[in-house]
Amino acid sequence: MPALTPTAIMDAYLAACRAELAAIKPGNVHVHAAGHRMSVADFEASAVLSAPHLAAAGTPVGARIEAAVAATRDGVGQNTNLGIVLLCAPLAAAAERPGRSATPSPPCWPGSTRRMPPASTRQSGSPIPAGSGRPSATT
Questions:
Q1: Among 14, 37, 115, 125, which one is most buried in terms of CB atoms within 10 A?
Q2: Taking the model in full, what pTM does it have?
Q3: Average pLDDT of the chain?
Q4: Residues 116, 107 contacting (CB under 8 angstroms)
Q5: Do the beta carbons of residue 94 and residue 57 sit within 8 Å?
């Protein structure tokens, strides 16, 4: 998988922010309801202000978060997007690295470092391979 450019990361983040505002969330701000002394315009401005900081190439995750939150606070005067910033900062950092699979194979069993083989190569219908720590029917 090729690395995403800062522009592509910014575009994806802004799209996620718009999608979040479009989702109707009772008790929270969305396109049909303001609340908590915040409006949709505050969230839209926050997205635009924080986007360059989340997409800053080579910047550590913590620095992305700090800069995005500071830009939001300076521009809007309140915390409107901390949740989505915390979610997207590590995703943005990972997206700028080339060669990473978007779907890593899951561990065989919680705490295991072994990886599951592709489903097409498994012998049984069980999603957990034999010998992975799962109790057998005979024990």
A1: 14
A2: 0.67
A3: 79
A4: yes
A5: no
